[in-house]
Predict the structure.
Amino acid sequence: MKLEEMKCFLHGADYNPDQWLDRPAILKEDIRLMKKAGVNVVSLGIFAWSTYEPNEGVFNFKWLDNIIDTLYKNGIYVILSTPSSAIPPWLSKKYPEVMLTKADRVRRIHGDRSFFCKSGIYRKKVEIIDRQLAERYARHPALIMWHISNEMYGNCHCQTCQQKFREWLKQKYRTIDNLNKQYWSAFWSHGYSDWDEIESPSASIGESTLSPLAVDYNRFYSDVSIDFLNMEINTVKEYNSDIPVTTNMFHHNCGINYQKLSDKLDVISWDSYPRWHCGTDKTTEWDNAVRAAFDFDYCRTLKQKPFYLMESVPSVPSQFEVCKLKRPKMHMLSAMQAVAFGSNSVQYFQWRKGRGGYEKFHGAVVGHDGTENTRVFNDVKEVGKKLTDISELKGTTGKCNAAIIFDWENMRVLEGEVALKRNKNFHEIIYKHYEALLKNYASVDIISVDDDFSRYKMIAAPSLYSLKPGISDKIREFIENGGHFVLTYNSGIVNENDIAFECFPPYSLNDVFGVECEETDALAADDYNEIVYAGKIYKALDFCELIHTSAEVVGEYATDFYAGKAAVTKKQYGKGAAYYLACHTDDEFLHDFYHNVISEAGVYKIDVDYVQDVMIKERNGHIFLMNFSTEQRSVHIDDKKYTLDGYDYLIL
Ligand code: GLA
């Protein structure tokens, strides 16, 4: 069976039978319970390396043969993982250099997972074990996908990686003089005379003030990680190129540029762990749902196709400070949210709780009691049934003609910038713009600056601080051709190496937006200015730019010495419109502002006024209504009223 030919959604879990090999009865019982819960897939072997290869070169797969065959006979497909994210102790004992060297130049000793040096012997050993697995299972009829490694992260600073970094820099800059020029290295006597003088950055013991170096090291290690994953992909593909590959993505700050990695993958998958019910007075269920939605839209955008929810927790995780039980109905609601936003699966970590180790109390479909008589098991079973009922949605997505630019490289450059205010809150600001669009019930793609702009009617670029060559032209062309573009403060200030442009920002776009930013005021967390926009007063927060403008002023500052100056502008340019927000604002402003922009731009949206805590999303013509509050809510669509109790959802 090919993955894309499967008519039903995938419903399953990470399964670690290697922890139960001395208990054949348990394995048998697992299959009975899986069938009962409507599970049709499991992810196998993620951390099984020490069982596969208990000693160097001694392999043992018999146990896995039996498990895969039995699963298949029972209608359960397999996503087989390469085991590279956790190594057996013999490997680090014999080859200590497989362990990662931290930025303080101390090499780790054996333990934990993911902390490996991706440059040397570890890479060779991973290739060997992957080859063994692929040779044996790549043509097994149960296999529907390869799960490459697990949540890869970790940057190494060992001497081999340092040398590779220098080679990478040489390729990029060709001469040391050019590197010095691009790095503005006369600052604090950084001028290098030889490549060998270059050391990877280290905030604790070394370089932390030369931002181009830090950004390049991040780029370099992202490339190393992608190359490593690619080595694993090529290895398993050699044995059957028809089996699709994925790796479970999990965090925008994990050190890998996922926008770049996605080209190497057939399928995008994501691990989603919202901290349901653990809100403080500042965060609510709605906030959790917004962040989860953002990640889902991000994943769907990466290939403009449905993604797979590879991991989620069926009950409570164990790694957070406080882990509250999922309230009744939340399991179904969160599963349906993933589906609404384009997932082709609902999968869990994990099927059965192990009895020992760090995650022994982490939520699982089957607990230590081993029974099916639990709330969690019933919740999972219900989701399984629901996924069968809605299987016609598998493989589809919704309509979308708007986007937010959330660019990995821009994020890396901006995060290192310390001026004005240490924390530029980039993630929070992106979420706020995304949330405003979500509350207007518009669908949004999350794109990088390299994506095709022409498919969109509106693009928002909050804090597009760094502009690499060609991007300002791309924005200009988009607007000229009729696009509506929202740019904000902190944009067009530096090039891709964090070197300031010699102009008032935004660089090379002053004429398009009719804006020149002369100065920026930074406000502390409890400080604010005000702006007047469309007759209402809103808060201006974080950063307030003082701009000169030839555009139409649609909002102005209300207080302080820059009262009366432009805060929000709009300029017709070519066939489109260029909007500029000179400050960060409160949520209400963003909601009202985008309400106007999306109607001017003709952005696809569900025609409903925001109902508090209710998320609405369209997938293949079906409208999902999802109530993330405990209270009853009513939604009016086309003269019909739909009432949802707390944590209820409806699919229309
Ligand atoms: C991640 C990992 C899993 C497990 C879960 C626990 O997503 O991929 O192996 O550790 O976290 O939440």
Summary: The chain has a mean pLDDT of 97. The CA atoms of residues 5 and 395 lie 9 Å apart. The pocket of alpha-D-galactopyranose is lined by residues 150-151, 250, 271, 273, 311, 317, 319, 349, 359, 362 (CB under 6 Å). DSSP finds 17 helices and 25 strands in the chain.
